[in-house]
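Possible race condition, two jobs.
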Amino acid sequence: MLLLFSLLFLIAGIICGAYTLIIIAYSGAGTDFLWFWILAGAGGFLASALFFLLHKKHILFHRVWYGVFILLILCAAGVFLLVEGNIYFASRSKVSDNADYVIVLGAQVRGKTVSKALKNRLDTAYEYLKKNPQTVVIVSGGQGKGEEISEAQAMKIYLEGKGINEDRILSEDKSTNTYENLRNSKKVIDSKKITDSREDEKKSTVESESKTEKVVVVTNKFHVFRAKGLAKTQGLRSVQGLGAPNDDVLTLHYYVREFFGVVKDVLAGNMKW
């Protein structure tokens, strides 16, 4: 049994180590969350060496301890698969037409140029906006390290370049994470509701405030589940998620990282399951 554990952890360590090298070669050593694969690979090799050493020294454990160890692994795997299952199925969900708002969540901007991940989100949003000309788009994202302009500004420029009228684009350029993206975007929606109710004298303020806006959140597929959960905690009751394509090489990386993001936000009370 000890030798089997040693072999399994060795295989896991090799896989994690190899994937670490692939990520570095593809997107650089500064890739977010790269540390996880480094630690996972190192942990796999250390655990393999430990179990092999115990095997060589003929150290035996009571079968109860083997059972406990296997049970812990199965429980951890069960939680992981439960979360990942929700992430996966949310990524395949369809959205209805005629949303009042599309919220495009920000992602990295290199200088003034949108990254591949952000471009995928914007192209997906553009296709929806082209099909639904009455829908207003909110571009949400502040200015981070290495970004010459805010993500919101870069997104607005990109959409205008594809022919989306400036009047249909609202910007939110203060947020630094997904939680803030959705919180601040909700404020933009509420502010527009007040403005619209003042401009339209035929519509009562009560009617305007009681209306439930149909919102579509656009992000990459791996991110849809958490984005929808965070949106619901902000009071966006009628919200759907539209997934943009993931990066093929980094898909595994993103899905594993998202597991920890979901767990963190659920425990912090930031998102509804």
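Job #2 (started ~2 s after job #1):
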Amino acid sequence: TIIFSIHQPRYSIFKLFDTLFLVGAGRCIYHGPTADVLPFFASIGFQCEEHENPADFLLDVCQGDYQPTLSSSNILEGIDSDQQNTQIVNYLHNAYTKSTLYTAIKQQINELCPSPRSSPTLTDTTPKSLKKSRLSEIFYVSQRTLRNTFRNPALVGMQTGVSIFLGILIGLIYIQMDHSLNIGVKNRLGAIFFMVTNQVFGSLSALDLFIKERPLFKHENVSGYYHVSTYFIAKLICDIIPLRTIPAILFSAIAYFMIGFQRTVAKFFIFFFGIYITSLSASSLCFVVSASVEVYGVANLTAAMFCVLTLIFSGFLVEITSVTSFLSWIKWISIFRYASNIFAINEFTGLKLCLPNDTNTCDIDGLDILKEQNIDSSTNWDLWKNFVALGGILFCFLTLTYIQLLRMKKTK
């Protein structure tokens, strides 16, 4: 198991290592105390210069790039230059296996290892160790990602602060809406449009999720530190919980009651889950763009273009039935349309509206407003199919993100 890797450690760090295990061309060329490594190589013809970093010297030796310095060493005589590195590594391996260090290590292994009869078989241990390894990978990568997230408190604080601010702002703008046919309906539709737009564009903060760590992911994954699925799951967990779930809860709790939507428990939770899945769906769009594009500016422009294009088909800015047929298909991938339908059906179902006069006549059914907006609401399925559609968009975008991460690994 690789705990961590140190790239080009300086001498002060190198001295902290107790034991070294050096591998060249897949063969062990040294295993023993760090303090003995330089004297060992000096004894077989590989002298580390006085001002040279021992770590760099050992890397060169392992790769077969370092020439022996002792005049008595004839290991390169008669060897083709193309095979020189391999011959040096073979020489180092043979020299180590003949050393007292190798004998001591072998004796320790024989003392520590159990007899073959008591050793568990490969079939007994492999499934459990694989399962444990994958869970351990997810745990440690998630832990590291969370630490990195909270080392940048500005993003978490800003995302939470903006949600609270916008919740209060929209609450003050549409505070305790009345039930009049003109103003009440207009304000409700305006509040819905404002909330959906805020949730979608507010999720653009997820764009740098994979862009920032792209070189690190490529290096660690190709080096076998963890699986692609491990990294993918860890990043989702650490983005969704602090940056999507908490802001959605705060925004819903503030905006819903300040605006004056229907105060029933069921409608509030439908509202919250609508806000939440809208945020997740928009974030998943950013995930796939982030995994596909290396430059943040290009990613930002790509996601913004998609959002603006699908915003037109939300049902607020244009009558969808009037759009030409070769463009009308865009409505099926519009997060704005499905989210707006959820909030409109949730609010206008069971709502009674009053005529704009002093008669206090409030017998106009909110379903009539939904019909005017061409929003189907005759059955309960008409509400939940919008949740299913957003869930489908979320699933498709996450699948594409995972595929892009796999492709990123192959193009290393």
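The first strand starts at residue 19 and ends at 24.
Logs attached separately.
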